[in-house]
């Protein structure tokens, strides 16, 4: 039987899966790769595309979307434009847990007119390391390297307060389903997002409910 899955926090309720994911991150924080995830998208020819990306945090305290970054010239940007469906696979070795997080992606580029998303894009840019920001000044990813000027790789790294490069994009995964597999205890949980009934405009946004269901591992 499905159970309502919500946890109280200051100012709002947060999904149980988010609390569990944060706990897993804390328990695995000594591992440098604990924030590395596999992000799968769909190519225009319907073949899968998968790559490792770095989790950059939740979009905000009030938004449970996961964030990553990418280059505006990367293939995944074109893939998302055709089909925004995506899934993340995330394994934590210390606790022997796997999370599968699925939903739709939004690419926030330099031309985005959403002020909140642009603010998030700038915040992530600011928090990145200098070598991380430097990659967005490199030549076009995926092209043959021998065609480029070798000195193009020696450009100085932009600082955290420098203007955000146009090639820098924030990738936002709007989550609608999460699976947690606990290998130590052979437990598996499924979390599904459910939109509440519409409410009058003067009463604010409709609440989101997450339903938890234990399933066979």
Describe the structure.
The protein is of the alpha+beta class and 217 residues long. 18% of the residues lie in helices and 41% in strands. It is built from 4 helices and 12 strands, in the order βββαββββαββααβββ. The strands form 2 sheets. Strands 1, 4, 5, 6, 7, 8, 9, 10, 11 and 12 form a 10-stranded antiparallel beta sheet that branches. Strands 2-3 form a two-stranded antiparallel ribbon. The longest helix has 13 residues, at 115-127. The chain is globular, with a radius of gyration of 19 Å. It starts with a strand and ends with a strand. 21% of the residues are buried. Residues 1-10 have low confidence and may be disordered.
Largest sheet: 10 strands, antiparallel
How many E-type strands? 12
Instruction: Please give the count of helices.
Output: 4
The low-confidence parts are 1-10
Write the layout of secondary structure elements.
Elements lengths: L2 E2 L1 E4 L2 E4 H12 L8 E7 L5 E7 L3 E3 L2 E9 L3 H8 L2 E8 L4 E12 L6 H13 L2 H5 L33 E15 L4 E9 L12 E8 L2
Antiparallel strand pairs: 1-12, 2-3, 4-5, 4-8, 6-7, 7-10, 8-9, 9-10, 10-11, 11-12
């Amino acid at each position: 039987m499905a159970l309502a899955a919500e946890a109280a926090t200051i100012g709002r309720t947060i999904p149980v899966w988010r609390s569990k994911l944060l706990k897993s991150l804390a328990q695995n924080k000594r591992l440098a790769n604990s924030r590395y995830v596999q992000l799968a998208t769909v190519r225009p020819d319907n073949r899968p595309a998968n790559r490792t990306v770095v989790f950059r945090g939740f979009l905000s305290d009030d938004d449970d979307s996961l964030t990553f970054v990418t280059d505006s010239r990367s293939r995944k940007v074109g893939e998302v434009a055709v089909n925004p469906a995506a899934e993340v696979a995330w394994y934590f070795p210390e606790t022997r847990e796997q999370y599968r997080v699925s939903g739709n992606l939004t690419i926030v580029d330099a031309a985005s007119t959403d002020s909140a998303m642009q603010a998030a894009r700038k915040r992530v840019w600011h928090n990145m390391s200098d070598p991380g920001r430097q990659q967005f000044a490199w030549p076009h990813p995926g092209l043959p390297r021998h065609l480029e000027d070798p000195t193009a790789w020696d450009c100085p790294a932009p600082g955290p307060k420098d203007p955000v490069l146009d090639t820098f994009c924030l990738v936002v995964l709007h989550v609608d389903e999460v699976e947690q597999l606990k290998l130590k205890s052979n437990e598996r949980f499924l979390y599904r997002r459910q939109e509440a009934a519409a409410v009058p405009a003067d009463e604010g946004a409709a609440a989101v409910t997450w339903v938890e269901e234990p399933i066979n591992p």
